[in-house]
From TrEMBL:
It comes from Rotaria sordida. This is Uncharacterized protein. It comes from the Eukaryota.
Amino acid sequence: MIQHVVHNLTLEQIKFLNRGPTYVPPCQLHILSKSSVTLAELVTKEMVPLRRHLNKLFAKYLVDLSRKMNFEEEIQVAFNESFLGPLPTMLEHRALYEKQIIQSIG
């Protein structure tokens, strides 16, 4: 907690810094992004580490090709759904509000 320190932060900014940002669901990440990356590019980028890890597991446990391809396809669909699903209005408002507070601090 910030006390007895000279600063230019508003009470709202101090409260935010004390509690920290709330959980950010995957579908909300595109709202918080600072770049002009499209949502499809963001999903592709976020999928890379998962693909890498899966490939290591498939090689380690010698998963047959058809099972591997089926699993990769199902994972890709689930991953896309988690990012591309509609964002509930309350979450969107909260994300934009917290983004605004973060930008006002920096």
